[in-house]
Amino acid sequence: MVGKITIAPDVFLWREYFSPLQQKQLLDDVLARLEQAPLYRPVMPGNAKPFSVEESNFGSLGWVSDKAGYRYQPTHPVTAKAWPAISPALLALWAAINAPPPPECCLVNLYRAGARMGLHQDRDEQDVSAAVIGVSLGDEALFRIGGAARGGRTASVVLASGDVIAFGGTARLAYHGIDRIRPGTSRLVPGGGRLSLTLRRVSV
Q1: Which string of DSSP letters, residue by residue, matches 113-168?
Q2: CATH code at position 191
């Protein structure tokens, strides 16, 4: 694997890992799977405030958020159907970066203009030995990542369509988020915006 950029300790970026043609192929695959598991808008635990992003999942487990809390479950919270399988292209990406076993979840977030994701940790997983891997499709986004303690120094990087970012090891529980997207920087996603595909191992 070539072109790896170190953003911070154990945080790595690959620019245009997926070529424009591969991005279109991956997008078509994702959109087909979203027909089986439609995007929906989750809410925050407790106060039920809606997220600014729309969400779905692929894989044997999907991450959900509702008034009861954060968790992984095998079915879509709206349709009650099992999540679609993870795309072969994404499984191949995981295998190129992580050791087996394969990911169980691909979280799909759709960011339209004005959407963001505050700094948070991915800590709802039993297994934190594998790196979290993120794929960007569509509009550019300003990604921010810090350390495992809230309030420390952070690093920011622009993620463009086709880019892949991974953080594991000492950075596996790092706080991270999306400050904003840059509307109109890509025409890939129908209706505009950015699709974020995040691969995670959940179970030990």
Answers
A1: TT--EEEE-----S--SSPEEEEEEESEEEEEE--SSTTS--EEEEE-TT-EEEE-
A2: 2.60.120.590
Tokens read off for 98 = 């992580």
Which domain covers residue 61, as residue numbers?
4-200
**Exposure of 201 in the CB half-sphere (CA atoms within 13 A):** 21
Q: How far is residue 99's CA from residue 19's CA, in Å, rounded to a whole number? A: 24
What's the pTM?
0.96
AA identity, residue 203:
S
d(CA 76, CA 43): 14
pLDDT in tens, 16-28: 999 999 999 999 9
Q: Which helix (H) or strand (E) holds 97?
A: helix 88-97
Tens-place pLDDT, residues 104-123: 999 999 999 999 999 999 99
Rounded distance, CA 62 to CA 70, Å?
A: 11
